[in-house]
Amino acid sequence: MTEPASAIAIATNMERKPTDWSASSKMRQRLASRNRTEKMFQFTGLAAVVLAVFFLAFLLWSMLADGVHGLSWQFLTGTDSSDPETVGIWGALKGSLLTMAVTLGLSFPIGVLTALYLEEFAPRNMWTDIVEVSINNLAAVPSIIFGLLGLAVFLNFMHLPRSAPVVGGLTLALMTMPVIVIAGRNAIKSVPPSIRDAARGIGASPVQVVFHHVLPLALPGIMTGTIIGMARALGETAPLLMIGMRAFIPTPPSSFTEPATVLPVQIFLWSDEISQGFVEKTSAAIIVLLAVLMTMNSIAIILRNRFEQKW
Amino acid sequence: MFLIAILAAVVASFLGRRKAQAIGRASGGGGDPRSRMPALPGHYGAFLALCTGGPAFVMACIWPTISDTFVMRAVLASPVAKTLPAAEIDREAIIGEARGLADGTIEAAFNPASYELVKPITAAIQHFNLIGFILTLVLVLAGFAAGYLCIRRDFRARDRVETIVMVCLMAASLVALVTTFGIVASLLFETSLFFRQVPVTEFLFGTHWSPTTDIVPGQTNGFGAVPLFWGTVFIGAIIAMIIAIPIGVLTAIYLTQYARPTVRKWLKPTLEVLAGIPTVVYGYFAALTLGPAVREFALMLGMENPTSESALSAGLVMGVMIIPLISSMSDDSIAAVPASMRDGALALGATKSETVRKVLVPAALPGIVGGILLAVSRAIGETMIVVMAAGMAANLSANPFASVTTVTTQIVQLLTGDQEFDSAKTLSAFALGLVLFIVTLILNVIALSIVKRYREAYE
């Protein structure tokens, strides 16, 4: 008979004790202040995110507001001129295309082969370490340094033509290659060893293993890295200024060695124009550039989501 | 020439395969492994293709440079060239124009003497193009013959092809090394030329920057780079970081700890868009929208004659550009803190914010600091924003509304103006580039080693 009673007593005691404890006004105050801090902290975090997103929205909106009226068929197909009414970006766009063709043609094969070598074949020795360190550093070197390299080596030492897409492409290829190597190595690393073992087991040579099995499986990852690297190269301005791709180009370039300019440099040049009409055209060119870049990045994301394999 | 090499290689791969198949059939023993050929027909094809196309391809790559010197020599030896001016610069200008005329890239020459040269140049170019063509053909045929004779029953084509592939892989990996070496060598070389004219101490410790082409030895010449270093640090490491560090770290905390997964899934790529916007767009925004606004603000504060090119507008925009970098580095390092630490703190009754502030952030601090160092190195190497928004005046001032200039701005400024390359003015850009390269390199190395050690600590 007494047992349930004591149990109830204990239970009420247990219930009462914490109630008592939190009922003390000092504790309650403390809890309230802790909760306030919690709220404040969460609010600050949210504010930081909102601030960043707001800035992005503001930037995009101001470009759209300024430039959307400048977009027209004539603007997309015209070339640079001194009259803001008739300027177009086709010349710069074509320069960008030619430059990117050179960049892709050089940096993709070299980057993929380097990644394959470092990940699959390279012996662990000092040389490999030096190569690895230099790739990691190249990925972080400021882009303008690549411009100085292009100026000193390609123009002054090798006497390649000034302002030409081929020189711009070479310079940007050196800049993009480390990005592709790093992305490629990660993609290759994620291919499970069992694939290699299986291929080796049925008599494939190491080179066959890599080129028939590892590379195809790693390709989506490599492509994603390549697209991101190319998008970066496409938006790059400073190194191209160094090698003189800032000429006034009234006719679109038709070969890799003709003087050309690229879209970001064209934006830079127009932004320096005093005439008010160029404000609209500059913003319109920015809209085109951003549209291209965002398309490239979305393709990269889609590629990653669709082909990424979880092993 | 490239076309010949590639076409020949395609044809050769076909023929090599055929021959290998023929040998395989002739020997007959398809079933017995020992009597089979040591490689697949495709390997023989690839081997023959490499033999045929490889040398010719290399030749096609280097021939333009070789033939260039030959053409020059032939032109200078021609009777017309006797009339050219003796000064090398003039001569080269005329020859360059004549080349343009010969190629058809320029229509009218500035110097009438260049018209005379068009004929010998065209002749020489044609002459050496023909020689290059014949040489390529010879290489193709010789390579094909040698390779074709090699293909026999016991020839291990797979091993040969793979050796060549390995050599290609190694060569590709050396490109990065050569690039690094090229950067260091070219910067050091040009900088040493510069320091022959201007003392190192003046460059590193002088406080007056107004580069000129004429150098007076033994006197200060306006090559004191301290104002530039200050401007770079002020914009990139102070103003930009005041914006980017709090917003970046708080964003990372919010996204990892508070945001719901769906919100996070959308917000993260949105913030990464900030990192994908080209710097020239940021620069344009800073110069056109933010610059005037900052000037208005300075006027409101009662400043006299504020400029629209201020350290503040450039630094603000640069800070925004850096946010995603700091955010993603902090994100990674917070995620790398073991879950047991977080769970332990929560189990002791700490609120979420207390856990973040007293456990997660201190534990992730090395990673965050590493990210900040990387961000600083990005910011001080950033060019277009400061070129467009920070101005050209080399002021040694801590006033954020004043116009300051940076190392990168001056590099652009010095190298896009005049074309004369050997003056101290243009060479000083390379000295600035070397300083920038060394500083970013040190920052990156420190940052990466901190991050690496931190990751090891929790693994």
UniProtKB/TrEMBL annotation, chain A:
Matching entries from SUPFAM superfamilies are given as: MetI-like
Species whose genome carries this gene:
Sphingobium subterraneum
Q: Which GO terms describe its molecular function?
A: phosphate transmembrane transporter activity
Please report which protein family the annotation says this sequence is part of. Answer: Belongs to the binding-protein-dependent transport system permease family. CysTW subfamily.
- Ranges that cross the membrane: 40-64, 97-118, 138-160, 166-188, 209-231, 284-303
Is this entry keyworded Iron?
Answer: no
A cellular component annotation (GO) from this entry:
plasma membrane
A biological process (GO) of this protein is: phosphate ion transmembrane transport
What is this protein's name? Phosphate transport system permease protein PstA
Q: What is its main location?
A: membrane
Localization (cell)? Cell inner membrane; Cell membrane
Report domain ABC transmembrane type-1 positions.
Answer: 93-300
Taxonomically, the superkingdom here is: Bacteria
Q: Which UniProt keywords apply?
A: Cell membrane, Membrane, Transmembrane, Transmembrane helix, Transport
Q: How does it sit in the membrane?
A: Multi-pass membrane protein
